[in-house]
Amino acid sequence: MNKIFTFLFICCSSAAYGAQPSEIPVGWQERGKATTVLFGFPLYRGTLYTPSSKAFHKNSKYALSLEYLRALKAATLVKSTVKEIKRTEGLSAEVSKGLTLKLMKCFVNVKAGDRITAIAQNANKIAIFYNGTKRCDLEQINVRNQFFGIWLGDKTRDAKGSARLKGMP
After folding, report:
1. Which end of the chain, N or C, is less surrounded by CB atoms within 10 Å?
2. Full-model pTM
3. pLDDT tens-digit map of 130-157
4. Cα torsion at 2, 166, 19, 124 (round to 10°)?
């Protein structure tokens, strides 16, 4: 079952959904949307935001908000996230263990309708929110590209979903 949720966590296809979350800074605009689906079952809807009318650039500020369509345990979210970062970035065992411990403080069990939003503050810091309430600041070297690379990087599992998030045709 965990393998199914891991795969669900990373596959994307398009869909539309609700209003801008309260944790998104004033003046930021939606760039694109995608829905993660596995075997026809939607897991979450993602929306990417950037400051004002600026296009997405991986080395700038941006936010990714995920609205969950199913219940998932925090441990599953952490495990899936670390697994994907290891796949795309090749993290050492030591860095992977440290990231796992940090994410355990950031993530909670989610149910349908819950939202997790991550805001890239700089290359080494991400703010993570749960339903509009700040859960943590995730800090480590290159964490922005590592974390968001799951959805927005060159090695994402779903290039089409990534392009939709970035607002590309």
Report:
1. C
2. 0.86
3. 999 999 999 999 999 999 999 999 998 8
4. 70
151 contact partners, CB below 8 Å, separation of at least 6? 10, 12, 34, 46, 64, 161, 162, 165
> What secondary structure, in 3-state letters, does the chain show?
CHHHHHHHHHCCECCCCCCCCCCCCCCEEEEEEEEEEECCEEEEEEEEEEECCCCCCCCCCEEEEEEECCCECHHHHHHHHHHHHHHHHCCCHHHHHHHHHHHHHHCCCECCCCEEEEEEEECCEEEEEECCEEEEEEECCCHHHHHHHHHHCCCCCCHHHHHHHCCCC
Separation between Cα atoms, residue 106 and residue 124, nearest integer Å: 16
CB atoms within 10 A of CB 21: 17
Query: What token pair was written down for 161?
Result: 């979903």
- The pLDDT value recorded for residue 40 is 86
13-63 pLDDT tens trace: 333 345 789 999 999 999 999 998 877 889 899 999 999 877 889 999 999
